[in-house]
Amino acid sequence: MSRVASRLHLDRWTAVVPPLALVLLAFTWGRDLPGYLVAIVAFFLTAAVLAAVHHAEVVAHRVGEPYGSLVLAVAVTVIEVALIVTLMTDNAEKNATLARDTVFAAVMITTNGIVGICLLLGAIRRRLAVFNAEGTGAAFGTVATLAGLSLVLPTFTTSEPGPQFSATQLVFAAIASVVLYGLFVTTQTVRHRDYFLPVTLGGDIVDDDHAERPAARTARTSLALLGLALVSVVGLAKGVSPTIERGVADAGLPASVVGVVIALLVLLPETIAAVRAALRDRVQTSLNLALGSAMASIGLTIPAVALASVWLSGPLVLGLGASHMTLLAMTVAVGILTIVPGRATVLHGGVHIALFAAYVVLALSP
Question: What pLDDT digit, counting tens, does each position of 27-76 carry?
Fold first, then answer.
C-alpha cells in the first residue's frame, strides 16, 4: 500500500472527532458561552477542520485529480457561505460588508498566501516549481474575472448610492458567477482534464490514478464524516463568532478583520492540503486547490448572499475600496507573470507572499 493511502487509513481519531463535535454543537447551540467553554469549542472546531481535511483527502484520493481538488474546494466554500449568511441574518445592518470582506480575504489568501507558500516549497525542493500553464492560466483568468465583476464593478456603478449593486446588477453578477464556475468545472473535469494534472520538469503529465486508492466503502464513510465535520465547523464557528467580534472590537481593529478571520478559518483545510501536495512535488494540485477555492468562494458565495439579500433587511456592500483594488490589480498582474512560463522560482513565491503580507498589514491598519 502506498504511503499516502496508509496515512489516509491510519488516522482513526478523525472518525471520532466529527460526531463528538456535533454533540458539542447540540449542547452549545444558541447559548452565551463562558470563557472556558469557548476554549473547548475552539479546540473541537480546530479538530473538526483537521478531520475535514483528512476525509476530503480520502475522497479525493478515491476519485483522483482534478476531481479531488474540486471536492475540497466546494466543501470549504459551503462552510464559508453558511457562516456569512448566518452572521448576516443575525445582524444584516452591522454585517453589510461581511460578504465582501470574507470573499476578498479568501481571494488574497488563496492567490497570494497559499500560492506563494506552495511555489516557494516547490522551488526549494526542486529548484523550480513546475505546473501546467494552460490549466492554471484558465483558472486564474476565471478568478480575476469573477473578482472584477463581483468586487470591483460595484464601486463604480451609479444605480445605487455607495459601492452597491442594484437588484438587476446583483442578479446578473450572481448568474454570471454560477455560469463561469460551471464552465470551469466542466473544463477541469471533462473536456480538458489533462490541463489540471501534475507535470514533471520535462513536461510529462503525472496521473495518480494508478496509485492504490481507498476502498469504495472507506470513501463513502469519509464522505459522510466530511459532511458531519462541515456541519460541526459551521455551527461551532457561529457559536464563537460573538467572542471573535468582541475581541476584534476590544483590540481596536477594523470590523473587516472578522471577515479575514472567517476566511482564514474556512481555508485552513485547503491550506494544509495544498502544502502537503507541494511537499509531494504536486505543485499543480496545490494550485488547483488554491485557485479552485478562490473561484468557488466568489462563484458560490456571491449567488448565495444575493439570494439571502431577498429577506435580509440591511444593505449588501460588495465594492472594494481603493487600497484593496490596488492589491487586486497587483495580484492579477503578478499572477499572469508567474503563470505564463509554467514554472516558478523561489522569487515568484516570495513576491506572492509579500502581496499577502501587504494585505494583512492593511487589514489590521487600513
Answer: 887 777 777 888 888 888 888 878 887 887 788 777 765 566 667 667 66
What pLDDT sits at residue 72?
65
Cell numbers that stand for 278 in this block = 507541494
Say how many domains are in the chain. Answer: 1
Question: Beta partners for 343?
Answer: 130
DSSP state string for 173-185: HHHHHHHHHHHHH
128 in Cβ contact with 119 (< 8 Å): no
Nearest-10 Cα torsion for 271, 326, 154, 309 = 30
Query: What integer pLDDT is reported at residue 273 of this predicted model?
Result: 81
pLDDT tens readout for residues 313-365: 777 888 999 999 999 999 999 999 999 998 999 999 999 999 999 999 998 88
Residue 51: how many CA atoms within 13 Å on its side-chain side? Answer: 30
- C-alpha dist (Å) from residue 301 to 63, 343, 344: 25, 31, 31
Contacts of 337 (CB under 8 A, 6+ apart): none
- Asked if residues 150 and 318 have their Cβ atoms less than 8 Å apart, the reply is yes
Confidence band of 116 (pLDDT split at 50, 70, 90): very high
Q: How far is residue 328's CA from residue 337's CA, in Å, rounded to a whole number? A: 14
163 and 319 Cβ atoms separated by less than 8 Å: yes
- Whole-angstrom distance, CA of residue 362 vs CA of residue 327: 10
Angstrom distance (rounded) from CA 98 to CA 118 = 28
Q: How would you write 148-200 as a 3-class SS string?
A: HHHHHHHHHCCCCCCCCCCHHHHHHHHHHHHHHHHHHHHHHHHHCHHHHCCEC
The C-alpha atoms of residue 319 and residue 296 are separated, in whole angstroms, by 19
Enumerate residues 6+ apart whose C-beta is below 8 A from 204: none
Range of the domain at 117: 3-364
Q: Which amino acid is at 62?
A: R
Other CB atoms closer than 10 Å to residue 12's CB: what's the count?
7
Q: What is the pTM of this model?
A: 0.81
> Which CATH number covers residue 214?
1.20.1420.30
